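During the first year of the project, the team set up a workflow for recording each protein of interest as an amino acid sequence followed immediately by a discrete structure-token representation. This format lets reviewers and collaborators read both layers of information side by side without switching files. As required by the reporting guidelines, we include two representative entries from the current panel. The first entry is reproduced here exactly as it appears in our internal archive.
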Amino acid sequence: MTSLQGQTALVTGGAGGIGSAICRRLSVDGALVVVADLDGEKADRVARGIVSDGGRAVGIGLDITDRDQWRAAIAETTRIAGGLNILVNNAGGARIKPFEALSAEDWKHDIDVNLNGAFLGIKEAFDVMRQTASESASGGAIINIASVSALKGSPGMPAYSAGKGGLRLFTKAIAVDFARRGYRIRVNSVYPGLIDTPLTKPLFESQLKPGSEESLEAARSRILQQYPIGRIGRPDEIASVVRFLAGDDSSYMVGAELVVDGGLTAA
């Protein structure tokens, strides 16, 4: 696999389970990684861990729903690295509730975090990425982390599904547009299934029916039965796919959807 040496990557949600795995993987392959997270202290810890392992990284605080913070993050990245080659819109979140319990504020939160945040990031990074791509043999890469919830209905997650579904088609639209306009920035998306992160427990809890005596472990087993591979995915398994999309080995991929779900949507 080709090296990412000399390239700079910004990863949102970089202090989380999947995000930190992505940051570490891109660093191992040579990239300078900007670890961006709503929790700036955690972002700093992830970055320091990467540096202690011999990589290059900096941590910054970033609320992806705030355009001014995005502008500051891109300005800081440009100051540190002189440009930006790879943008990974990984940050996301869900307020797991049945429709009747979902408030307008819950809806807005999930749409802002899972769709609008990626839009703002790409909007603010575009000029820098386009300039960097024009000066790089590899061009640029944007990888949006969607979800299998964008491909199939997810009970108890209507707002999250809507946000990730919107991200799916937004990705395709700009991927085609950027390619036809010769911007040399490839845009693709990744669709994780159930991944072993701190978010899995709330998901299992949401599947317990009111008044049911079913245990959390039983709910977990029932959900896993939907996955032909028979297990939860690992963050590093998503990171490996992101690494592929970030480099030259995926140079002919534009608007692609890489589903990493243990067979859930194939069954």
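The second entry, processed by the same pipeline in the following quarter, appears below.
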Amino acid sequence: MRRRWGLAVLAMCGLAGFAGQARADERDFCADRPGKATPSCTLDPGRFQIEAGLFDYAHSRDHDTIEDDESTGDLLLRYGVDDHTEARIGWDGYGWTRSRDRMTGLVEHGQGSGDLTLSLRRNLRHPDDSGTAFAVMPSVTLPVGRNPIGSGTWSAGIVTPFGADLAKNWRLTLDPEVDAAADQDRHGRHLAYAMAAAVTRSVGEDWQFTVEGWAMRDDDPSGHSTQSSVDFSTAWQRTRNQQFDLSAYVGTSRATPRIEWVLGVSQRF
């Protein structure tokens, strides 16, 4: 099942490489992937882009439990509405969980599909994410998924991406975020807020390397927690309209997975 999802996305992107013709006046390729920080760019009007997570693996452990989470099929569909606005639909894909009690050895398995997120990005300065650029991006998540992957109730949030050039081929991205996040008991919402800060180095026209720090405070009524990580990502732009990416997230707090690997692809049409 997992391999079929990945192969299907790769095949689709391969076909799109023949169909997607470069436009002389179009903006440079700009994807939300990789990493947790997202740029402020919006697509050219009438342009469509798909960004897919081919595989995601996270490993967590504490004194009581060892957990492994896998997912595939994570999708983000983006469409350029006008010069500064894009509409977006995201789906969390399909995931599997495996949890082992370290005391008893009891193993529990779970699987299910993720939720659907609708969002709108409005760029306020430099829609190609050049120079000093910033945007606002409100979103709402619909509980279409299944437990344990789906959240069970709606949630909403807003991100305000900001970008600035640090030096030639170096760029800073900041992503402050505030959410009305779904409660763990699946029956209400609570405050959560996060910040991602990324520094990206472009090498030639095809490669980008990113280091970022990320932290999130979650005030769930069942117990407050703080997650944080140091993340490393690389992206290879295979053609003008296609990109592959690989990321490693290293957890720096007890509430965060110790390591997470993410592989994905993006294609502009």
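For the second entry, the following points were noted during internal review. The longest strand covers residues 189-203. The domain at 2-268 is CATH 2.40.160.40 (Porin). Both points are flagged for discussion at the upcoming steering committee meeting.
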